Amino acid sequence: MPGQVRSGQIIGExxxxxxxxxxxxxxxxxxxxxxxxxxxxxxxxRLREGLQEILKAPEYRVRYRFGDEGVLRRHDxxxxxxxxxxxxxxxxxxxxxxxNLQETSWDLAEEAPLRxxxxxxxxxxxxxxxxxxxxxxxxxxxxxxxxxxxxQELETAPGGFDTGLVEMTDEEAEAAPRRDAETxxxxxxxxxxIRDLLLEAFRQALGAPEMxxxxxxxxxxxxxxxxxxxxxxxxxxxxxxxxxxDLFSYPTAAALAEHARRLxxxxxxxxxxxxxxxxxxxxxxxxxxxxxxxxAFGFNEIFNIPFALRFLDPxxxxxxxxxxxxLLERHPGLRTLFVQRDGQVWQEVVPCNASSLYKWFWxxxxxxxxxxxxxxxYRFDLARELPFRIRxxxxxxxxxxxxxxxxxxxxxxxxxxxxxxxxxxxxxRARVEGNVPSWQHQPPSFQAFALKxxxxxxxxxxxxxxxxxxxxxxxxxxxxxxxxxxxxEEPSSSTGGWAEYKxxxxxxxxxxxxxxxxxxxxxxxxxxxxxASIHYxxxxxxxxxxxxxxxxxxxxxxxxxGYFTTVVAHRxxxxxxxxxxxxxxxxxxxxNESMPYSDIPIDLxxxxxxxxxxxxxxxxxxxxxxxxxxxxxxxxxxxxxxECIEFRQIDPEKSESLLGLQFEVLEEMIEGDExxxxxxxxxADHYGPEQVERIRLTVxxxxxxxxxxxxxxxxLGRLEPRLVVS
Length: 726
Description:
Chloramphenicol Acetyltransferase; phosphopantetheine binding
């Protein structure tokens, strides 16, 4: 037999991923069909007896259920399935029956992961095997081999493998229904079809119509957020499954097509309808998580998101306001009040025609540039005012216009910022010409997402993924201060400071090259370098590091502006002989594997690990690393006729930090030049000035050593900066 399965055994990572994929996309078929045409005449009873003997193997009678501790396990059922016997009139009807069997929903808690049937046609006997992909993951060495061996003894010949095709006559083939459900994996035509779809997805997401099938996704500005968006759309719209690790390892459409596969039974579905504007809606999970912290900090400005743009060319302020009103009409989530009632917070959408009742826009003649510094500390009253403020100012020294864009985080995340800037450019281009912008489609509202998530409830399977991975993980503690360092003894607070790294060009280039050599993203490499720095500084064998995840697992809402982002935590281990390549691979695999489960906010994980009680002040992680990948805050509004209005982001001052150490990685593209900056913010009650400088120097030197080493297999200990060796 191909393998042994122990009852009650915790399942493997790929096996678990296949199980979760079915839960997330139940409308798709998560199975492969294998069909054999038996040559000659055979005893049906002998066939059934032989097949039933094979089906007694544990791997073919296993069930998947959660244990009392919330962990997904295999359970060996003693009941053995009996091959189904069907009589049909033709090979075409036999194929239809197998395809129907393949598309029938699967309850792996009650049904084995293999379906077996014998189909008797007037011409021949056919054997159909439909295997759930969880079986392929559990027995990767060949779940079908025992069946092939049995048929070989009967002197049979296979009629097809994996594609669901058998040896049909020309007439039968012509009459057979054409289905989008056929798997194209492994055929030249199928690879070409998938390649073309991948290339078109790359072109659209990267805004690069000139991109060819052999061009590198990352060379055209691709990064993990764009990759996530592409993968979700390919799966939801075309039924094409691409693993994130494969995209990093094979970043061209031509190479990736060989590792992508079209899921059987995939079908398009309509996006959710927007919620009615006057319907109170509960908070989404990510918003609830944010609100807990917001309330704990006295509803202060800790979740303000201040953007400021300096326009290098004159901008039409009335047209800018009108363009933003167009965005408010498209995205009700931006025009939302947050009202507490009966112990619960509700979202109440303000009708679009009532937005004029709220003060949210100031022209430059109404304000002064000096107000930019204090605007970021404005305290919103979310129950009585819109969660954003737009204030134009005039810089008399340069003659340029500056705009402050202040949002409360509860309505805007990193993904939404880029959406907002893209749509603002589109609407502004129309408004300066006196036109109303036209849109290709209307995205569903954020309120529709919140209602859908609320109706589904918390995914216990996704929660179990995090609790299993983080159980018994070390708690986040401030890094120990060296003996000579003065440590501040201050009460716990969010007061802090920040420092900036502007990486030298050769270091930035070296990190990009290192990422490409290891089939990783720049963020993976910088994350690995920061993690290694913390390992060096604290002599830690294991770290739990926090990071933000998009939280957008439903492609229906990829074009919706709102707050989907969740905070997640990853365990990174530092065994004695860990190499540079090993650390990068570990970081990449850990992050990419966790993405399908990123709808679960960290506070729910902490509560589950803590027996249902809120965690209090002892957090799961001390260090947080976040990517800001080539955002649209440095760019231009491109108008009709070729005119451009260029703008540059003004960095906000940072005086508070929720987290002990936070590293923000900024990939920027300004006038065609790529650059990498890292902003480090810290809590003053955790780190004194000498320690902050020590951390800053260690991270900077580690990044440089990562970038300049030619040997990816070098042991991590040999890259430790001398300044932290005692």
